[in-house]
Design a protein that fits this description.
Arc Repressor Mutant, subunit A, Tetracycline Repressor, domain 2, 2 domains, elongated, transcription regulation, Homeodomain-like_sf
């Protein structure tokens, strides 16, 4: 494909994903047909089927797009637990703050009784890769002797939970919930300081 055709295909893909997300929210996953999604996206059914032959493939794309980390290959270098966790925490906060993230969770929660596979896809293709990145970093800090983390899975859960419990989950249940950029910085900083106080190898208290 030429650069032009690649750009057009990417634009159409974006329109399809956007239309599908909206219709999944409005009609439910089951009732939102691929033909209706193509109509709402302003593309032909042939164009949609070429990129997404099934509705499941389209939902996979929504998940992957929502969780795509611009620094996907970057795991912080070891040696400074505070700096590394700050980087990971800020990235996580940015992911959770994306406009479509709350919608994605609403789709999964609403369809869980009838389509549990959507939740499995969401976890496997969405949060799990980022969770594993944090866990990998914590293992590296432990192996380097700079952090005392015997259960990296639990530590990663604690860290991401401190961030999401304030920045994200209230958005699903509290009307009008919003946080300022300054609050985001504070939430991530507090989570980092808590982790350092708990897991720093030397056990030094955070000032």
């Amino acid at each position: 494909m030429t650069t032009y055709h690649q750009r057009v295909a990417q634009q159409k893909r974006g329109l399809i994903v956007q239309a599908a997300t909206q219709l999944f929210l409005e009609l439910g996953y089951d009732r939102a047909s691929l033909a209706r999604i193509a109509e709402e996206a302003g593309v032909s059914k042939a164009t949609l089927f070429k990129q997404f032959p099934t509705k499941a493939a389209l939902f996979d794309a929504i998940v992957i797009d929502s969780w795509a980390d611009s620094d996907d290959s970057e795991v912080p270098s070891v040696g400074d637990l505070s700096a590394g966790l700050t980087t990971l925490g800020q990235r996580y906060a940015a992911l959770l703050g994306r406009p479509g993230m709350a919608d994605l969770f609403r789709i999964v929660i609403a369809e869980l009784p009838r389509f549990p596979e959507l939740a499995k896809t969401h976890f496997a293709e969405g949060k799990l890769p980022y969770f594993e990145k944090v866990q990998t970093y914590l293992v590296a800090e432990h192996d380097a002797g700079t952090a005392d983390i015997t259960d990296p899975q639990m530590a990663a859960t604690q860290f991401l939970g401190m961030i999401s419990n304030y920045l994200f989950w209230p958005r699903l249940v509290v009307p009008g919930w919003a946080v300022t950029p300054e609050q985001v910085v504070t939430v991530v900083d507090d989570a980092v300081r808590t982790m350092v106080a708990r897991y720093d190898h030397h056990g030094k208290p955070v000032a």
